[in-house]
Amino acid sequence: MQRKQNSIKLSALFILALLFLFIATTAAAALADPSNGLTNIFAPESTPAKSIVDLSLLVLVITGIIFVVVFALLVYSIVKFRGRAADAGREPAQVYGSTQIELAWTVIPILIVVVLFLATARTIHAVQDAPEPATALEVTAIGHQFWWEFRYPRLGIVTANELHIPVSDAAHPTPTFLKLLSADTDHSFWIPQLAGKTDLIPNHPNSMWMDPHRTGVYLGQCAQYCGTQHAKMLLRVSVDSEEGFKAWVRAQQQPAVEDEKATLGKRVFETTACINCHAISGTVANGRFGPDLTHLMSRSTIGSGAAENTEENLRRWIENPDAIKPGSLMPAMKLSDSDLDALTAYMETLR
Amino acid sequence: MSANAMVIQNAQVVDRTWVETLHEWLTTVDHKRLGILYIVFALFFLVVGGVEALIIRIQLMHSHNTFVSPQVFNRMFTMHGTTMIFFVAMPILFGFANYLVPLMIGARDMAFPRLNAFSFWLSALGGFLLYFSFLGGSGLYGAGNAPDVGWWAYAPLGARAFSPGHSSDYWTLALLVSGFGSIGTAINIIATVLCMRCPGMKLSRMPLLVWLNFVMAGMVLIAITPLSAAQIMLLVDRYLGGHFFDTQAGGSAVLWMHFFWIFGHPEVYILILPCFAFMSEIIPVFSRKPIFGYPVMVAATVCIGFVSMSVWAHHMFTIGMNSYANSFFTISSMVVGIPTGIKIFNWLGTMWGGRIQFKTPMLFSIGFLFQFLIAGLTGIMLACSPFDWQLGNSYFVVAHFHYVIVGGILFALFGAFYYWYPKITGRMLSETLGKWHFWLFLIGFHLTFDLMHIPGLLGMPRRIYTYEPGRGWDTLNLMVSIGTFIQAIAILVFVANLVISHWKGARAGNDPWDAWTLEWSISSPPPAYNFATVPTVASRRPLWDLKHPEDPDSRYE
Amino acid sequence: MSAMANPFPQAPANWKLPDRGKVAMAGLIIAESAIFTIFVVAYLFYMGKNLSGPTPREVLEIPIFYTICLLSSSFTIHFAGKSLERNKRSTFLGLWLITILLGGLFLYGTGQEWHRLIYEHGLTISTNLFGTTYYSLVGLHAFHVTAGLAMLCIVGIFTLAGRVGPGQSRRVDVLSMYWHFVDAVWVVVFTVVYILGR
User: Fold this and answer.
1) With contact defined as beta carbons under 8 Å apart, do A49 and A193 qualify?
2) Between B463 and which of A225, B135, B335, C157 could a Cys-Cys bridge form, CB atoms 3.0 to 4.6 Å apart?
């Protein structure tokens, strides 16, 4: 009698514990600090991301049903077929199998797989094999350890880390088609709200596209481990209105601002090792190992999102990048304080 | 007293010094001793790998944490993955296979006892080499460094140019050496199963554990070797100036990915098959019914063995394969879920109509069923390649595979421990401590790995030493980390149980669970020669036939 | 309990299981085949993708003679095994030594070819993709031939010491399986490198 009661108690406890765990975990998720939703894969703002969400809802419904059915069977069998004290010593009927039942639970999963696969194949083709319209904007993204290089080949623009693309209207679409290359190791371009991720692999060009429906800033980051500072290879995509984008392009196409007040800093730049890695159009600096600095001040962050683009942060970065992003490939320049001030002042003029 | 052990009158027991005992253990070729060595070795590395996990989780407790530097963090996740797969999961499963397979087929040892010992010591050397990297890895900044290229060591990150020093070489050599050990054990298992079965044990009468380990061993032969080949190629690149994966010379980073995952995917099936084996032995005994659908279970296993060799590029959905390749790997990955799902149904069918006893092995088995179901379903989600373009390389994937490995494999292993510990040591593990272990671990596991799916859905990639605030990841990561501490406590309870029960546990006798396979016909622990007389069998459950002579299985098979 | 009845049922009349040496060698062959397959895949994948340096067509000469040596050694080892079963020990020893000689000749041929490639054409493992994949694949095979030859020599020494007779026939068969495997791999490597690759 006691053993039977213990058995019942145990089963009930078990099931209650599981339920509690589930409710607790869902509640915890709801209580989690509010996100700005900027990296939520279920808040798509572009056609590829939306196709993925549509497919995922079908997958979630099907897998949800499978879970509920099997879980119910599991719970039922635990409760109904638990051993009772009265049965001690007697064995239940020794059933070896059942061809009909086993056939049923083979055929049904096969059918489910066929349905899922057909839906998935459609989405794969829709996203991957979408033709590129003539109105598309072409951007080449080149992954570096640990920053992003963006080139607009038809517009003659080279920039870094923060991507500007035009919003795409359903009426006359202007999607952005990205070509993905890498200068060193593997990286991955991931802006969850705009598209699934695609890798940047050296010697293996890839392509992807997105057509954002709403203006705004979208966030993401590198999604393939690429070395020490993989975590700080952040992405910032600014989706501009048509006029906003045109204005941005015009500004980027200008050569670097020539400010007489900053000639001292410019000389420091041109005569130190800076020009080995960096480029500023209109000067002798033509290095490609590091980001293009021509319009550095048009970016809101430095170090590919490692810090806000303020004068203080800029000075700290130039003095010792490792202080902000340990393991980044830019060496500490070991400049004197006055050189550092002049150089920072020069950088601040590069709008 | 077992009906199958000898009692020698007036035998004289000789006392041995501890040096002699140590020497015996170091030079043993007995499959039972080697099994125990494998298991103890794996448990040690389980604790080490667990500490690495704790370090990772403490660092990720909140955004912009500075508990460890990025360099240390990157070494931690590399070592955690490498250790857990190669020096915990593989050895512990080989250990159980070594111990149980000969006993279950009525043999006195494995086919090649000396090869068995050699394979174990190769694996041990591999573990030692990997951890020696902390001392000898001389990275760019001086003193020793562990590898930090991730446990996949993707090209070109593993090349000389991006991985100077020797840390990646320790990774390569440790796995190459232990890989050869694994191949030796696999050959041994296959030869044992095919050539050492006791009379009457046709292949169709072998316990499912033996079948599953047999298929696993076959998979090891063709899955571990691609990794060995790729690692030899990596060494050629690093030391002989080769260009296998040198993208500057026209080499292909994607080729490494293909080779690695041709190993990597079957590898996880290699890890799960022995766990299916444990479930297929434990669930019937504690439901008091034979396994439901034995022939289909065997067929499904073989099916999984073959189909799992065709799904590897679902780890590569984002590398830019064309839509036809992506579609192929989508369907193959879904198809492999079918025989796997069938197994879950068969276990449910075994419990159905039974008289379930909720001893600790069964608790862990039920946990396994629940968690493996969920893990399989998140796997189906990941198999849809467009969905994987969002979920891949995010914490959703990390949650999925930990659900399989911890929620599935580790739970099954715990069940196996509680079930066979009496046979190995002659003592029962404490049921009280067992239940504490189970519930603590269940709660910690779900707190960690249920919640871990959500940051993935919110865009959190994996292998990042820190993250930005304001993305909704902070609280979730904190709770995930708390769950790991609860799991750690549960592991301590488990270790305490193992140790205390060795001296204080109740005596087990031959057959504490009233089970039906041959290992329960001999004493606990078994004598060195296993069986005094080689048994003969006429059905899949020889001890059921002996206990129920009025209704033997042999009548129905 | 010094005497007990066997509680287990009657043993089947005819209970014969395969020889474990042969099963183990079959397992080893399967594993090694997987390793070679990966190297062959790499070779095929990189065919024609060199960015610079000598190409196969320019520098490779088909090693017909040494291939015939190696493949004939499969015949000699087979007949050696048969002779041993019939206790014709001197025939066995003769054929065994010829096998070793043929295998040695093959290795000599490989060495000669490599010498020519390195010193006359400047092709090394680090020259280009062809160099890397060629030396790795052919080298892996040559390594396996060397290991096989070492084992053949050990058996040869034991034979000269008079310790190999029909009782060791089974073990000699297991070693022959390995040698046949090495030859079969050469057929594949030869086809891929010297026929498809040029």
Assistant:
1) yes
2) A225
| Distance between CA atoms of residues B182 and B120, nearest Å | 8
For residues B416 and B360, give the distance between their C-alpha atoms in angstroms, rounded to a whole number: 10
User: A226 CA to chain B: closest CA distance, Å?
Assistant: 7
Q: Would an 8 Å CB–CB cutoff place B477 in contact with chain A?
A: no
Q: How far is C126 from chain B (nearest CA, A)?
A: 5
CB within 8 Å: B384 and A55: yes
Which chain B residues have a beta carbon less than 8 Å from that of A70? 344-345, 348, 373
Query: Is residue B525 reached through a cis peptide bond, with omega within 30 degrees of 0 on the bond before it?
Result: yes
List C-alpha distances in Å: B369 to A70, A75, A76.
Answer: 10, 11, 14
Distance from CA of C162 to the nearest CA of B (A): 26
Which pTM value belongs to this model? 0.95
What is the predicted ipTM?
0.95
Q: How far apart are CA A96 and CA B79, in angstroms?
A: 45
| Chain C partners within 8 Å of B254 (Cβ) | none
pLDDT tens per residue, range A259-296: 888 899 999 999 999 999 999 998 999 999 999 999 99
Write out the residues of chain C at the interface with chain B, using a CB-CB cutoff of 8 A.
1-2, 4, 6-12, 15, 17-20, 23-24, 27-28, 30-32, 34-35, 37-39, 42, 45-46, 49-51, 124-126, 128-129, 132-133, 136, 140
Classify residue B549 by its DSSP letter: T
pLDDT by residue (tens digit) across B261-312?
Answer: 999 999 999 999 999 999 999 999 999 999 999 999 999 999 999 999 999 9
Assigned token pair, C117: 């490639």
Between CA B553 and CA A8 the distance in angstroms is 32
Nearest to B3 among C4, C31, C129 (CB): C4
pLDDT digits 0-9 by tens, C113-134: 999 999 999 999 999 999 999 9
CB atoms near residue C54 (< 10 Å)? 17
Each residue of A68-83: pLDDT tens digit? 999 999 999 999 999 8
